[in-house]
Amino acid sequence: MAQYTRVSGSVGLITLQSPPVNALSAAMRQGIVDMMQRALSEPEVKSVVICGQNGIFCGGADIKEFGGQMSGPPLIPMIHAIEAASKPVVAAIEGIALGGGLELALGCHYRIAHSKARVGLPEVTLGLLPGAGGSQRLPRLIGVPAALDLITTGRHVTAAEALKFGLVDQITDHNTVNVAVKFAQRVADQPLDARRISTYPCLCPSDVAVLFEEVMQRVRRTARGAIAPIACVQAVRAAATLPYNQGMERERELMATLFTSGQARALQYFFFAQRAVGRWSMPSGARWDTSKPRPVHKAAVIGLGTMGRGITVALAQAGFSVVAVETQEKQLMEAKQAISGMLERGAKRRGVAPALDKINYGRNIQSVADVDLVIEAVFEDMALKKKVFQQLSAVCKPSTFLCSNTSGLDIDQLACQTRNPELVVGMHFFAPAHVMKLLEVVYGPKSSPLAVATAMQLGKKIGKVSVAVGNCRGFVGNRMLKPYLEQALFLLEEGATPEFVDQVLEEFGFAMGVFRMSDLSGLDVGWKVRMADGLAMPDPTTGQPTRLRQGRRYSPLGDLLCEQGRFGQKTGRGWYQYDKPGSQVAKPDPWLHSFLDEYRARHALVAHRIDHQEVLERCLYSMINEGFRILEDGIAAGPEDIDVIYVFGYSWPRHHGGPMFYAATVGLNKVLERLEHYYQAHPDVPSLQPCHLLRKLVASGRPPIQKWREVIKKVRSQL
Ligand SMILES: C[C@H](O)[C@H](C)C(=O)SCCNC(=O)CCNC(=O)[C@H](O)C(C)(C)COP(=O)([O-])OP(=O)([O-])OC[C@H]1O[C@@H](n2cnc3c(N)ncnc32)[C@H](O)[C@@H]1OP(=O)([O-])[O-]
């Protein structure tokens, strides 16, 4: 766990050894305590260096230990002992020093970092705060404003920025441990009192009270109900206003509250869920570790509308050569301009040169003959997509992977248009495609593990969180969105207003409620799909909009708005009114309220009082229920896949872990009982009928979410 060697005669070298990130597990902490005592007890040793094995200093506390009984020496006194040591201790930081890892380094008297190292206190992303003295030492070392920024955002900073902050004393391009050992020899006789950060005064800007007020307001606004960011501000405020020991007491109190909170459990579940989706599997048994991807050097994008432009930018920014094809001359010219602009702005933000030379534009599909992978992003029309896949199959090399950015059309139908259907998968990006992290990689019955592995690896290389899912209408994300949207419309029919429904969902933590989100993405997008499905047609006999389709309840409210050109932000009118087309500030629209009253009267609907609970339960539980159907169908391999899709693709509040983790938190028996309650009231709404898998999980004693995959396997084997 921690190895001790004496180097250069007088330096005790303590090496943290616990792959992959030298996390501070109980055994590691014991090792550090023992090795420090040894170094301090050996008279020949004049100074100490702490470093990490494998070019990584330390990834912080061992998150895997959080769920269990904490044992071993606690971190705070361990770090205090290092700070109080009679011999100088130098931290040699390579790779990363995060969370407790940076707090360990802050307990040392000096910090030497490699120029490529990154440091930070990301505890807030795990629903916690820097609970080993970081919230008290960091403000004393780098000042309150910078400490507030690092601790409330959890962002990692480069070695260069850390040096500017005074967070590290020196950075090097050479072997950091060797540099640190020489440094330790040089400072062996230096007095240490001035190097013990906990003794430093916490220098505050004159307007510190105003600063904390502003930061607290900003944090409350962006936290959307998350409690850790607020506690982080309170902890740093303690550093600015209290002596160190009292500040540490305040840090301990705040950490104790967070550590046992549901939000911390949700965020830590999500930390591991993000990593679990990379270990994908298919119902055929093919898996991430048995399916080797084929390298992609040159890619192509067909169709340079909004999505095609974003995908092209994402590929070029990641260093891929891209052939960008748009058959319409005008559209091509506009796309070139837009893409160049996006690349230049992105490059400026990242301080690098824009990858303009990575892209070759063309109007002819022939120009993609030699690429390794094609992403089709033409208009969402099956007939058009089929034609494009036929052309691609004829033009491209037999080994070329053909991928579609469709947001829900049948991948298998596209595969059947090609010579090599096993090389066809969906790569469903989310708008804006060069910004949104999520990528649904969709495999059809003919898709080969090779194609899935290649698309998943490409997703990772362009900075996406890729989730492998099966082929069905709407895949995972949009399939679960349908009952959510449906319930929102039914609630309007029954007496709610768009403002109220959105308020409830935004208080829950969504960045945008369902109606503000629909106005942003455009009501006409869904309308065209419903028209194509023959759903938006009036009743053939009465010519009136009908509220029943194939025995199922249907709300034509969205269709009626579209028939009046109310497409949302783009037309300045939708579920809300906007100052002008394109403006983003949604205002309640009296016209819509009277339109709803008339609609209810026309359909003999009696409005009733709808409270927060009903809105939340009907919108979220119907979505969750569809999530269980997706697991039962094997479209998603596990709950983590669904939760990662919803957090990264549909702004589900991360501090609630995702729809499936939230269901586990609420209690599956409660979700089941409430769905039964609503289904009884609305028997013509099948999405409220509890799914068999949900019943099965409740019947088998509501196992923890980590155990659901076993139950799913059993249920699927009985199907
Ligand atoms: C008191 C104190 O104040 C508090 C309370 C704390 O200190 S709280 C803890 C604060 N520390 C953090 O928030 C850092 C969390 N880690 C990361 O941000 C990243 O991991 C990384 C370090 C930047 C590397 O990224 P990567 O992309 O190269 O690899 P990876 O796939 O992510 O990670 C590689 C493998 O290491 C595992 N892992 C990473 N960090 C870990 C940690 N801190 N504890 C346990 N396991 C960890 C991870 O699950 C994965 O396992 P597996 O999936 O292979 O089985």
UniProtKB/TrEMBL annotation:
Protein name, UniProt field: Peroxisomal bifunctional enzyme
Q: Which InterPro entries does the entry mention?
A: 3-OHacyl-CoA_DH_CS, 3-OHacyl-CoA_DH_NAD-bd, 3HC_DH_C, 6-PGluconate_DH-like_C_sf, ClpP/crotonase-like_dom_sf, Enoyl-CoA_hyd/isom_CS, Enoyl-CoA_hydra/iso, NAD(P)-bd_dom_sf
Where is the protein found, in the record's own terms?
A: Peroxisome
Q: Which residues cross the membrane?
A: none
Domain 3-hydroxyacyl-CoA dehydrogenase NAD binding, which positions? 298-471
* Entries under PANTHER family matching the protein: 3-HYDROXYACYL-COA DEHYROGENASE, PEROXISOMAL BIFUNCTIONAL ENZYME
Which GO cellular component terms, listed alphabetically, does the Swiss-Prot or TrEMBL entry include? peroxisome
Please provide the record's keywords in A-Z order. Fatty acid metabolism, Isomerase, Lipid metabolism, Lyase, Multifunctional enzyme, NAD, Oxidoreductase, Peroxisome
Q: What is its EC number?
A: 1.1.1.35, 4.2.1.17, 5.3.3.8
PROSITE patterns, per database record: 3HCDH, ENOYL_COA_HYDRATASE
Coiled-coil segments = none
Which organism was this protein described from?
A: Maylandia zebra
Where does the record place the 3-hydroxyacyl-CoA dehydrogenase C-terminal domain? 474-578, 615-704
Keyword Lipid metabolism among UniProt keywords: yes
Oligomeric and partner information: Monomer.
According to its UniProt record, which reaction does this protein catalyse? Answer: (3S)-hydroxydecanoyl-CoA + NAD(+) = 3-oxodecanoyl-CoA + NADH + H(+); (3S)-hydroxyhexadecanoyl-CoA = (2E)-hexadecenoyl-CoA + H2O; (3E,5Z)-octadienoyl-CoA = (2E,5Z)-octadienoyl-CoA; a (3E)-enoyl-CoA = a 4-saturated (2E)-enoyl-CoA
A GO BP term here is: fatty acid beta-oxidation
Name where it mostly resides.
other
Q: Name one Pfam family in it.
A: ECH_1
Q: Can you tell me which family this protein belongs to?
A: In the C-terminal section; belongs to the 3-hydroxyacyl-CoA dehydrogenase family. Belongs to the enoyl-CoA hydratase/isomerase family.
Q: Does the keyword Lyase apply?
A: yes
